[in-house]
Every structure is written in C-alpha cells, then in structure tokens.
Design goal:
Layout: E1 33-35, E2 38-40, H1 61-67, H2 74-89, H3 94-102, H4 107-119, H5 126-139, H6 141-157, H7 164-170, H8 172-188, H9 192-206, E3 215-216, E4 221-222, E5 229-230, E6 235-236, E7 241-242, E8 247-249, E9 261-262, E10 267-268, E11 273-275, E12 279-280, E13 285-286, E14 291-292, E15 300-303, E16 308-312, H10 319-322, E17 333-334
Parallel strand pairs: 3-6, 4-7, 5-8, 6-9, 7-10, 8-11, 9-12, 10-13, 11-14, 13-15
Antiparallel strand pairs: 1-2, 15-16, 16-17
Helix pairs in contact: 2-3, 4-5, 5-6, 5-8, 6-8, 8-9
C-alpha cells in the first residue's frame, strides 16, 4: 500500500515544530520564584522542570499575577506554560498542544485556530473560519478582552477544569461564547447571512443556540452549556453563570424586543426558563427548573413554576461568582411561607 501522505493543507492546526524540542516562541530566563514554601512558576521560563502531572500545578490568578509582574498577557502566558508541561507529561497530546498553542505567539491566533477546527465543515474549511476569527479579533479590541474574561471565569468557577489550557481546548461553553462573539461582530457589520450560517454551525456542533443579534457581556460562564437557547433580543450582563438546558425565550409570536434582560452577576440554574421581555436584576439567583415570567428584583432568589421570590441575598453577594446553588443556608433573609 502506498505510504500515507501529509494531512490536507486545509487543516490549519498542522504544526511544523518538533514535539521533542522547544517551541519557537520560547523566551525569558530560567528559574522560578518562591513565595513561602510554594513554588510560583516563572511562566516566561519554558524550560522549567515538570513538577506535577497533567498540565502541571494549579495556580490561582492571584498566584500567577504575583509571579508575572512584567507579563504583557497573563492569560496567554499561563496557557503556554500549561501546554508545555502537558506536552511533556502526555506525549500523545504533544502534537495537539504544539499545533494549537505552542507554535503561536499570540492568544488571538491560538483561539482562532481552535475555534476554526472545531467548527469546520466540508464546505466551510478551517482556513476560511480562521481568517474570519483573526479579522474580528484584530478589528474589535473588546472581542479579545472579553474572551480572556470568559476564560478566567471558566477557570475560577469550574472546579472540573481549573487549567486555562483545558478551557481553551476542551470547554465547549467557552468555545460557543467566542464563536457567538464572531457571529455578533458579523451581524453588526451587516454580514447577516454569514452570521446566521455561523450560528447554525455552533448549534450543530456544540448544541448551544445563540442568535447573532443577542448581546453577551464579558465574564460569562456556561457550565456544560448543552441545551442553552437564547432569544435574539436577549441581553446577558457581565459575569453571569448559566447552567445547561436553560431557555431565555419569548412567550409567543410577538415581534420586537421580546426576550429577557439578565443583569450583572446572575446565576441561572439547570433547566430554568426565563420567558418574555422581563428583567432579571443584578445578583439574582434563578433556581434550577424554575419558570420566570415576570421581573426578578436584584439580589433575589426565585424558585417554582411560575417562579416566586423565596429569599434575598445580601447586597453585593453575587451567586454567579460563587456558584453556590443552595437556597437554604446562605441567604440573608427568606420569604415567610416559602417553604425553605
């Protein structure tokens, strides 16, 4: 049988780097800083020894900031460090990690390649998608800034995936948000057929349906994300957390502004529905499987079908950040007769 040839050129993740060697982007002096008894990696040192399995030690953003005082891009430095450690600990993934992360100099390029390969089809190749993503990331500074905020949100609120490189490569909620940001960019530019085509790809590949007209703030965390449906006039504020099978929908066939407006730091539990042009106030918590059909006050907990206020959080306590879904212990006050 003839020898197998190289992968088709349209696959933009194909890497030329030798997995056994150093990636071309390596920079910085050797060494790591130490704070107390804890070793804090100097992420610029791509030659630092591997001291933990998988993608290496789990560091908080605070730890990373203390060890990367002069970093120009903290999120990207963390991703590269974890990818390098992972390529050494798990040789089977070296090709993926080098081609999608380590051979690139910028977060934006790596993100474009990951998303392009996730969404490509036989008639819409990864190279074409990569060009679209890179163009949008270059021309819209908020796109790249919001993508970093979304990645940090997933790291900090999802105990199952604390590594930045895991979020970038494997978290479909994060990937769906970034693909939507491209669709929204195209929609605002008047390239609506292309934006709608991208929405269909996201829905088919990732089981998350967000129309390109919908507006999403920075720092959104989709936990699992499967089954999320968002209406085209919906707005999701900054630093929200939404679980799977959530619907932000309408109430019928009316036109115009007809979908929910979700405020800052809102937590929406699995299977919940928010229907109609209603406001969910800042810091609110919609309990799993509730059906919301009227406005939710700020820092209120609502539950039931239809949803009713069953408790109130302390002002300034944002459940989306803590991911605390209990409704019995941590509320400042509970509504009499609510049964909790």
């Amino acid at each position: 049988a003839p020898a197998a040839g190289p992968p088709p050129a349209r696959h933009v993740t194909r890497a030329a780097a030798d997995p056994a060697g150093s990636p071309p982007d390596t920079a910085g002096p050797a060494g790591a800083a130490r704070q107390g008894s804890k070793l804090i990696w100097s992420f610029k040192d791509e030659r630092a020894p591997v001291t933990a399995p998988g993608f290496g030690p789990i560091l908080s953003m605070d730890d990373a900031m203390r060890s990367l005082i002069d970093s120009d891009d903290l999120v990207w430095d963390i991703i590269r460090r974890e990818a390098l450690v992972g390529s050494r600990n798990v040789p089977e993934l070296a090709g993926v990690l080098f081609s999608q992360v380590l051979v690139h100099a910028r977060f934006e390029t790596s993100l474009a390649i990951v998303l392009a390969n996730k969404l490509e089809t036989a008639y819409f190749e990864a190279t074409e998608l990569k060009v679209l993503f890179e163009d949008a990331l270059h021309r819209d500074p908020d796109f790249a800034k919001n993508a970093r905020a979304d990645l940090i949100a997933a790291m900090e609120r999802n105990a199952a995936a604390p590594h930045a490189v895991e979020v970038l490569l494997y978290n479909k909620g994060f990937q769906a948000i970034q693909a939507h940001r491209l669709a929204h960019f195209l929609w605002r530019e008047g390239r609506r057929p292309l934006a709608l085509h991208l929405q269909s790809l996201i829905s088919a590949r990732l089981a998350i349906d967000i129309p390109p007209a919908a507006t999403i703030g920075a720092g959104l965390f989709l936990d699992h994300g499967t089954g999320l449906v968002v209406g085209e006039t919906a707005t999701i504020g900054r630093n929200c957390s939404i679980l799977h099978n959530v619907t932000l929908g309408g109430t019928g066939k009316e036109s115009g502004d007809r979908h929910p407006k979700v405020g800052y730091g809102v937590l929406i539990g699995a299977g919940a529905s928010v229907l109609g042009n209603v406001m969910v106030g800042d810091g609110a918590h919609v309990v799993a499987r509730s059906v919301v059909v009227k406005a939710v006050p700020p820092f209120a907990c609502v539950s039931g079908v239809p949803a009713k206020v069953v408790g109130h959080l302390q002002y300034g306590t944002f459940p989306a950040l803590s991911m605390d879904q209990k409704i019995t212990n941590d509320y400042a006050s509970q509504v009499e007769g609510s049964g909790i």
